[in-house]
Amino acid sequence: MSVASTAAARLHILQLLATMLVLVSANIALPNCTSRCGNISIPYPFGLSAGCHREGFELTCNETYHPPKLFMNSSGVEVLEISSQDSTLYIDSGILTLAGDEGPDGFIRMNWSVPLNDSLYRTAGNTMIVLGCGITFRVQWPSAQSWPYLGEESPSSSCPLKCMPPHPVIATDGICLHDNGCCTTGTRYDSNRFLITYSVYEENLPLLNSSVALVEWEWLSKKKNVMILQKAASSDTSLGASKGVLHPIPGVPIRTAISWVFSNLSCAEASNSSDFGCLSDNSKCLLYLTPNDAIGGHTCQCWHGYQGNPYVQHGCQGFAPALGIGSGLGTLLIILSALIARRKLLVWKARKSREFFFKKNRGLLLQRLVDKDIAERMLFSLQELEKATNKFDEARKLGGGGHGTVYKGILSDKHVVAIKKSKVVIQRETDDFINEVAILSQVNHRNVVKLFGCCLETEVPLLVYEFISNGTLSDHLHAGTPLSMPWKDRLRIAIETSRCLAYLHSAASVSIVHRDVKSANILLDDRVTAKVSDFGASRGIPIGQTGVTTAVQGTFGYLDPEYYHTRRLTEKSDVYSFGVMLVELLTRKKPCVDLSTPGASLIAEFILRVNQDKICEMLDQQVIEEGTEEAKQVAAVALMCLSLKGEDRPTMRQVETKLEVIQTVERNTPVEQTNANADDDNFSRRYSMEEECMSSMSFPR
Questions:
Q1: Which of 70, 323, 500, 520 has the highest Cβ tally under 10 A?
Q2: Is the whole-model pTM more than 0.85?
Q3: Catalytic residue chosen out of the listed positions 190, 516, 574, 620
Q4: Domains of the chain, earliest start first
């Protein structure tokens, strides 16, 4: 198709859309109600006066502006656009300067919420952009029901911000990187509330106007918009002296997407009530589910092939009336031209989209980190993975967590794989993703889950792993049944995991610290063989170095206290986490901190019982019946791993050796005395109850 014919086809499409908009605009508001404020359409359920809107959807049109501006009547937030078809409105959320009170741990905390009714409005498709120098930033988002309490298990995202040369202050070039005073983090769809935690970790750097904004991802993808936020944050006067409040940027609306819902009823329940919102024929009800799969209300949408407002009678209009212009032949030619042009446009957009996401998802970085031939073999096309999962059919869903979903796929060569797809777009998770691919491409061990490759052609990167059929160690230990896996299997899994970590620490080309060792990251195959997974947080330590200073990552309950307080990551951080997992294997209890009793935790209780020689009071009954003596020896190994100081902990190689000795003695086979006594001195030392309990009491919560 020529350029001229393509342009003509696009012109026909524009004419078609214009005609449709004329028809649809007549049915967006209730009869005798104002449907515009300046340049903004006001579709029902929104309205300006009594009888023209649903409860909670009242707006105000301020005509002192030129053109007039639209505001939420309840909060004064400026409304930029309303889309009834998508049940989404776009507001100017401004930019927030960081404030808050410093806690005893040196972290500053502040609560922040979007000033809208939680029962009606939820954030949707947004990203947080954080600006500042020399700080570590973390955001948590709870459900509306749990606010203001946030447990450590609440979903969260974090990033460090540096201002390195040649950027002595926040950069204003529209590029957002960690080392130029700018980073992005994700948010969950259903949360309007956030707990922000940050701290200054570089004493000589000024805090400046450290600030954060909640921004629609599409708006933030434009370089000029990032530059506007950077200039506002780097200015001493643009945000004013007031801290901890939202500041609009004059003349530049900060676009944030907000979805709305009706009631907390399912579609079936709502359709039989007077509160049902889908009033138009040719419309359908959509159930809104929270991330916990709870019913969060319903919205409405026109059927495919119809456009307009599903919330008013006769609001959804079909395409046919718009085409009743001219002769039948002319209409047919317009449709044909539009279809051809649309197909060409979709192909072009799909290709450009794949190229854009490949670059955004650090595909070029991956090619630099990994051997070129290996990188090419590891890259899967989106088309291949869609075919493998039947377009990510819900029936292929294996499970999911706070940030991602795993699907079962069958490749064209009949290999069965597990495909991990993240739920949200978080820059740190994209960096973790590339980090995981780079590390796993260099690792070859029978107890490491095998990575086949990845797909970088979508907004959210996809990882393709070997399919592990038997769940996680955590699933088996905490299944809620009286009996769990046998003691001999628990001991074997501990040995296999220690063997894998020892390999990562000392046998790989660089020393790799996993940084998130926990039972949920130990997968089990059909032979109950351990497979260590999730290397997104892992770090490589160059040969000759004992550790690196880095932002804290990991899972509370398993996190090394020394690493948490010093930010110094070493191989011994994995040793501590492994010690926690040993306690979990012995007791079949989850290692979360008990927030109701200050200082109390599973680890504190374990150390206390070992020092009192009362470890049997904590052991799982099944362990007592199947292997009490071996369990006591494993408890001694765990105690050493949980030493307060990293230098006093054994290496993973020493842990592996000791566990193998315990297993060999259990099987009653001869062992050389030299092996049996290997590193016994390292395992004989006991800390006092007081020192170890103080260690646990200082554990982060």
A1: 70
A2: no
A3: 516
A4: 28-85 (no CATH), 93-142+157-257 (no CATH), 363-466 (3.30.200.20), 473-697 (1.10.510.10)
